[in-house]
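To: structure desk
From: M.T.
Subject: fold request, one chain
Message: Could you run this one when you get a chance? Sequence is below, nothing fancy, just the single chain.
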Amino acid sequence: MVAAPFAAARLPVTTATTDGAFGTSHTDGELLGGQAGCNYQLKPGIVIGIEASGTFDWAKDTFTTELVTGATRTHVSNVTTEIERKCQVHLGPRLGATLPGLTGNGETLTLAPLFCATGGYAGTCYRSKQSGDNPNFRAAVNNPDVSESDFISGWFVGAGVDIPTSGFVPGTFVQIEYSHSEYGDMTFRLAGSDVVVAEAANENTARA
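Reply: Done. Structure tokens follow.
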């Protein structure tokens, strides 16, 4: 089976800065991709299977923070940070069942919505970019602009429903799914410094 999900996605990022402050940013955007897999029917109304999916993402967040000296808290520069998610992949088993009373009699399976749970491996690629705006700051440091890309791995859990559409196109269904992914830390260097910031990244995705 192959589908092309296109929906809104969100990647909340919580940051612990060097001065102990905390903040949260959200990369909201769209995704487009496909999936492939197979299901095995254990008995009418109960299936197990495996599924892999991959997407290209257009999710980005841009925010500006103030860079100050550690001792005197004097303003040094405003630093613009851009975090952009570029792709994600999921691979894992799925378990599905219809509601009691909707599966037909004997070996005959009545076409009914199939409610599924899934989980397994998740991966995402992202790009982080920082740039300072103060000319004196830019002239004084070796790295006023920082841009890095990385791929990080984690896990996901999700749930959804497969809705048969054979009444319109034989042998087809529509799948609606929500998933939550945890990727651990993504890291990037701060502009004008050799300090490396680690950010805990997670992702909530709804797709059809």
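Reply (cont.): The first helix runs from residue 135 to 140. Let me know if you need anything else for the meeting.
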